[in-house]
Amino acid sequence: MTETESDAPTSPNGLHAAGIVGAAALLRLAALPAELYHRRHQRRYAAAVREAQQTQTLLRKQFGHQDASTLGQTYRTLRQVALTRRGSSTLRALLPWGRLASVPLFLGAAWTLRRLCQAGQVSGGVPGTWIVDLLDPDPLYVLPVVNVAWLLWNIERSGPAATSAPPPPATVIAAANPLERWLQWTQMPRFQDGLKVALQGSLLLVAPGVLTLPSALTLFWFSNTAWMALQRRLLRRWDAAATWRERTAPDMSTAGGAGLQRDLQVAWLRAQDDLQLAQQTIAAVLGNRPPAPSVLPAVRRELDALRASGRLQLPLRVELREDASGRYIAVELDPMVRPRPPHA
């Protein structure tokens, strides 16, 4: 206990032990919406990643081997489509919103409580225990030791959440933008293990200073840790129930297995029909003429007309190419245009 705290007059109407425990509970409640937000988007991200990886596996069986660049682009596109359909994003899922909200709240509350201790606005002890004055350090050092040991145990047990997605391929991480690459890297086991060691080492370094803190602060720390443990237990059950509901929802029933394979086969057949129609249109426009830049506008007009009528669903575009065999008109997907939804 510092000289300022020992000399400060104690107010009989100051903050008591029950108020400190209640303040810790209110702190956890204040951070709960951010934690729920994070976990909800974690589940959506995990489901999107599983769907993207499963879809990519089926596509590779259909089209064969893909190089690293194509593999990464295909995965990111599939994952982004799945995330958009679920109303989520990589940033929403991977940023630890719960910790970003709770850490400033905890530090602010601890700083305020320390100022109250210095001003003598904390009174009484912990009923039924050896702590008779919350302004004094714990005479038996039980609360500081239990706090440090409990926090070390929580850090050791902390790991990927139950809703975490499987890690993406290394080629996907390497090809992502810097922010997404950093966020995905923080989810890797190597980073998580290094973070555990760093946090545990830092805690052991400051542990001796914890022994001299006023009992009010160690009680607040202990209460916050206890409420946090209870909150995590309840959230795990909430996660399990929410995950079960999302996986059994009707609109998610085709996210895997035979349903997804059937959808891919239907889409593949429609794509084949569209490509055949586009080739027939090109042949009709060309007639007996060789491919030349002058015929491209006519081909594009015909394809636009087919797309406007609904007969062509894929956003196809044509370009004039040349190789060893001569000039030809290439048909490819336009990535800047969304496909037209199929007619019932």
TrEMBL record:
TM spans (from-to): 15-34, 197-222
Keyword Membrane: yes
Keywords of the record: Membrane, Transmembrane, Transmembrane helix
GO cellular component: mitochondrial inner membrane
Major subcellular site: membrane
InterPro entries from the UniProt entry: YidC/ALB3/OXA1/COX18
GO molecular function: membrane insertase activity
Membrane disposition: Multi-pass membrane protein
Keyword Membrane: yes
GO biological process, one term: protein insertion into mitochondrial inner membrane from matrix
Subcellular location: Membrane
Protein name according to UniProt: Membrane protein insertase YidC
The organism of origin for this protein: Cyanidium caldarium (Red alga)
